[in-house]
Design brief:
66 residues, 0% strand, mainly alpha, 4 helices, 27% helix
Protein backbone atom coordinates (compact mmCIF):
# COMPACT_ATOMS: atom_id res chain seq x y z
CA UNK A 1 0.00 0.00 0.00
CA UNK A 2 1.27 3.45 -0.82
CA UNK A 3 1.04 5.83 2.12
CA UNK A 4 0.21 8.73 -0.21
CA UNK A 5 -3.09 7.10 -1.19
CA UNK A 6 -4.37 6.87 2.38
CA UNK A 7 -7.06 9.49 3.07
CA UNK A 8 -7.55 8.70 6.78
CA UNK A 9 -6.24 12.11 7.95
CA UNK A 10 -9.03 13.85 6.00
CA UNK A 11 -11.82 11.85 7.63
CA UNK A 12 -14.25 13.61 10.01
CA UNK A 13 -13.68 10.83 12.58
CA UNK A 14 -9.87 11.05 12.42
CA UNK A 15 -7.96 11.99 15.55
CA UNK A 16 -4.19 12.54 15.25
CA UNK A 17 -2.53 9.22 15.91
CA UNK A 18 0.57 7.37 14.77
CA UNK A 19 -1.62 4.91 12.88
CA UNK A 20 -3.08 5.14 9.36
CA UNK A 21 -4.65 2.74 6.86
CA UNK A 22 -7.10 1.32 9.37
CA UNK A 23 -8.50 -0.99 6.65
CA UNK A 24 -5.20 -2.91 6.98
CA UNK A 25 -4.05 -2.06 10.50
CA UNK A 26 -7.33 -2.32 12.43
CA UNK A 27 -8.97 -0.27 15.14
CA UNK A 28 -7.45 2.97 16.29
CA UNK A 29 -6.32 3.41 19.87
CA UNK A 30 -7.08 7.15 19.53
CA UNK A 31 -10.39 7.37 17.66
CA UNK A 32 -13.39 6.71 19.88
CA UNK A 33 -16.29 8.50 18.14
CA UNK A 34 -17.67 8.00 14.64
CA UNK A 35 -18.21 11.46 13.13
CA UNK A 36 -18.35 10.46 9.48
CA UNK A 37 -16.56 8.02 7.19
CA UNK A 38 -14.63 8.48 3.94
CA UNK A 39 -13.67 4.82 3.53
CA UNK A 40 -16.02 4.14 0.60
CA UNK A 41 -14.20 6.74 -1.52
CA UNK A 42 -10.67 5.85 -0.43
CA UNK A 43 -8.32 4.78 -3.24
CA UNK A 44 -6.80 2.13 -0.96
CA UNK A 45 -10.24 0.61 -0.31
CA UNK A 46 -11.25 0.72 -3.98
CA UNK A 47 -7.98 -0.77 -5.30
CA UNK A 48 -8.18 -3.66 -2.83
CA UNK A 49 -11.89 -4.36 -3.31
CA UNK A 50 -12.72 -3.76 0.35
CA UNK A 51 -16.42 -3.54 1.25
CA UNK A 52 -16.65 -2.09 4.77
CA UNK A 53 -16.19 1.23 6.53
CA UNK A 54 -15.37 2.75 9.90
CA UNK A 55 -12.26 0.58 10.09
CA UNK A 56 -10.89 3.00 12.69
CA UNK A 57 -13.60 1.96 15.19
CA UNK A 58 -14.70 -1.48 13.94
CA UNK A 59 -11.51 -3.21 12.80
CA UNK A 60 -9.68 -4.08 9.60
CA UNK A 61 -11.23 -5.55 6.44
CA UNK A 62 -10.08 -9.09 7.24
CA UNK A 63 -11.79 -8.96 10.65
CA UNK A 64 -15.00 -7.38 9.32
CA UNK A 65 -15.25 -9.82 6.39
CA UNK A 66 -15.65 -12.80 8.75
Amino acid sequence: MKKGKCICPGCPSFVECKQLAFCFTGKSKCIKKEKGCLCMGCPVQIENGFKHGYYCTKGDEKTLAK
